[in-house]
User: Fold these one by one.
Assistant:
Number 1:
Amino acid sequence: MTRKHLKLFLILFIIAACAIALGSWLGRAKPVKVLVAEVAPGSVQDTVSNTRAGTIKACRRAGVSPSIAGKIDALPVKEGDVVKQGDLLMALWNEDTEAQVKLAKSEAVAAKARATQACVLAEVARREADRQRTLENRNLASEEVVDKSDGEARAQAAACDAAKASSQVSHSQLDVAQAALDKTRLTAPFDGVVAEVNGEIGEIVTPSPVGIPTPPAIDLMDITCLYVSAPIDEVDAPRIKLKMPAKISLDAYSGKVFAGVVRRIAPYVLEVEKQARTVDVEVDFVCQQDCAGMLPGYSADIEIIVAEKTSVLRVPSEAVLEGNSVLVLSDDNVLVARKIKTGLSNWEWTEVSDGLEPGDVVVISVERDGVKDGALAEREADKTANQ
């Protein structure tokens, strides 16, 4: 082999070696990027959540309407007004009933005066009868005069009783007239905020027909006390008890969680849909001061804490695969499938009773392509398990 041929051979050998090295480098498996979490102790809660959005409601709410028909004569409140118990909300035209009340008051005064007069005459007649009886004992008055004065005294006493009874009748008639007047006036049954007013001055209002609900004339709410009412699936409802702690979240207060406590569990199941039967559960705010600025009608979600463990080993729930296994990132950056035993669990955390140790790193981005047992992996971000 000539020197020229040897040089050409060396060049071809070097090119082939480079090609093989390049092919090997290109064919090498690339690590898949994964999100991971370090296993650490923390608290885990077993919770029950509502199936559909709940609603903020006022502890006291009244839809008040007149019990009689009439024309609206006064409407001193408007929507949003704050009122005190007993404040006038609406008045119907009532000049006729006001006149009847005035007449009844006058008649009651006159009847009382007549009763006083009759009773004074009865007292005078009784004293006269007693005097005649004394004179008879001294033989200074005849029996006829004594009998006459005694009968007059009894008659005047009866007249006094009749006048008193008449006075009581007059007062009862005044009460009837006053009750009729009160029917024309709507007053606040408690302190609250006027949520809705249905009617204008001059309009005619009528009571709701039997069995046909109509909007109230005034919708009054006490917004100083609010609670959440939410539907819970019938399967989860038996696990809930009164006074259980709960967490409340609202779309209007994104990212903020309020403490609550179960105040009521409905004693019946609602069949809203054939395949969705629920039980209404009501949750009170633990601190009603947190409700400042909230409005009845806000949508809300509840998470009732059925059980809780603290300082237990836990992993993010999204890291747990079907069959209770997780992918652990080894020291040499290889993913290793590992079986675990689980305890309490919710949508965020799962308790691990066996199969992992504190400091182990598990994959939480298990849905990514290429994330499987034996794959080479590279950390993209960490989620601390003891947050």
Note: The longest helix spans residues 95-137.
Number 2:
Amino acid sequence: MMAVRVDRRFIAQKGVRPMQRQRQRQIVGVIVRYVRCLLTASSWLFGSAQAQSLQALYQAAQGFDAPFLAAQLQAQATQAHAAQARADILPTVGIGAGVSQTNQSSSFVSYDAHNFDTQYAAISATQPLYRPANWAHYAQGARQSELALVQLQAAQQDLMLRVSQAYFDVLAAADTLALEQAQKAAIHAQMESARRNFDVGTATIVDTRDAQARYDLAVAQEIAADNDLRVKSLALEQLVGMPGCKPLPLRSAAHPASALAGGDDTPLQTWVELSQTQSPEIHQSDIALAVAQLETRKAEAAAGPTLDLVGSYASTNNINGNAMLPNSFGLNQATIGVVFNLPLYAGNAIQNQLKETLALEEKARTDLQGSQRRVAQATRSAYYGLQTARAQVTAYEAAQQSSQSALDANQLGYQVGVKINIDVLNAQSQLFDTLAHLAHARYDVLLGALRLRQASGVLQDSDITALSVLTQD
């Protein structure tokens, strides 16, 4: 958490009456307690004995999150479907058998009724010798299997970012609540000081009413912050499937700017070039183009010849003969050969199918170009967003020191009569507002680093582990 400097030197200023010095000590004591509240807020809100790290919650979400589980099942189904294409280049074998009984009679007087049974069994096999369309379909299956893995990778990266977002949303809401509570306590102390000054005649009723109005507003803001924390906590619980989960807060000494490797020194162009080779979105579009090209090959092959190797063996047993022969006999027959087929005319269906596949191939190529531009733009946006968040952390840290100095000066001025109560309240509000923005900016740095790595396609489980190191143990 943030540390706030408290300047006690104004207590020893000459000309300040003992009663004023006592009130000053009370106000300083409130500020010191507020600092301690900030340092212990996360521990108070999230008991470390029951709290979970980002990595633990991410692992829990992998077994609970419906979109991620659906992506896993879709990947399994796609791989199984892609494996079916291999059957087109392998031999097919079939076996058949049958039994029949025939009762034969005639109206001729000299003809005797004749009954005979027939038993039949056969096995046949076909091996494609030349079928370009089948090989193109087989290649499509291999690319679709690769596509399933890329889609699963994209879903996993999305889950990492969603869990991290929900995790830091809870921490940010907890910091906001702690700040609102500390601000309310500081305003209450200032309000009590204004009342005492009014009682002894050194201040007007306006100071007391100003402080009371600020205090009432602080109470309302505390209620809103508490509700926001509950909502953010419920969102995290729904995502990871762990009721009552409590994320571990960041250590006070953690430096979010150096949490993930490569974020400080790697130039923008390197990130953009990396995204063009690593982004799952571009990989998906590239595979879609390859599948469309293979579909064109299939359409072209449909107009060409095919050649298959076929073979069969059949055995027939005629018990009591058949309609022509009265005696039992058996027949075995083996066949092997090749079958050639060349389509001559199919109502222009093949030609129109080829036109369709060529148009879809060009569409896939355009989609790939669009994906490349989209990913490059998203990478640039994520990069500038991260740089902005880092700059904001530095700026808010400087603003924190300035706001603290302004508060010290206004408190001293109020005690010596050159400042009014509203000046002190405004300085307090500015300090707490700066601290709130600083806390959120620190989380924005961490999330910005994750978004940049996701946009460039290099977000991995190890990045979640690296962020977990920044939390309290």
Note: Residues 132-199 form the longest helix (68 residues).
Number 3:
Amino acid sequence: MNRVFFLAFCLMITPLGAEPMPQIQVSTELHYVEVGPAELLPDAPVVVILHGTGATGDSMLSLCDQLQLPPCRFVLPDGPLRAHGAFEWYDRFTHDRKGILYSRDRLFELIDQVVRESAPKSTPGIKAKPRPVILIGFSQGAVMALETGLNYKGNVVGIVSLSGYIGDPEKTLAHPYADHKTPIFLMQGTEDPVVQEEMGQSTVEALRKAGYHPFMKRILMGHKISNLEIEEVSKFLREVILLYH
């Protein structure tokens, strides 16, 4: 597969005073933007951020800075499907599961690729652990974060859903690979006209029925990503990374 790398610019996503991390845009079958230092600690995570309908991976770049996480590798892909000139993960009108599965499989491939390329070096006689993976998504991206994170065969250590849900729990949770102890954080607006509260609540109930222990937090807002949400997600992910260490 041909790949073209473009050094675009430097983006501060480490605490003040630290070195900026170079942004690299990579052209593949699933176009994505990758942000992170050239060298990572062996247990530094790969953080996959998934956009909502009509947006792009680039549109989520500001989160890399705002989350204020320890050094990690951020991966921000574009949805592989196009409708009316907009990127999406599945048909937003029919919620076609075929499209969800297609996009999920493309994400599996992308995560495998990034994890493999950023894998820590093994020492003689000791096999390195696979790099941990965290998935964050908004709206359609949140649906994909849950679908992908729960079913990815790699080392998923955290899943964040912002204004998302599981549309078909019986299929998504039929044979999940994620450990039941995997931290799952769902945030939802109490005035969200797109993803109503009952959709979030049914997702929490389905996850609990499947043996997971999700945490749901609702805040007064509509269908968007707010500064308060970012603060809450930052706190959650810092705890996840600390526990993994």
Note: The CA atoms of residues 45 and 131 lie 6 Å apart.
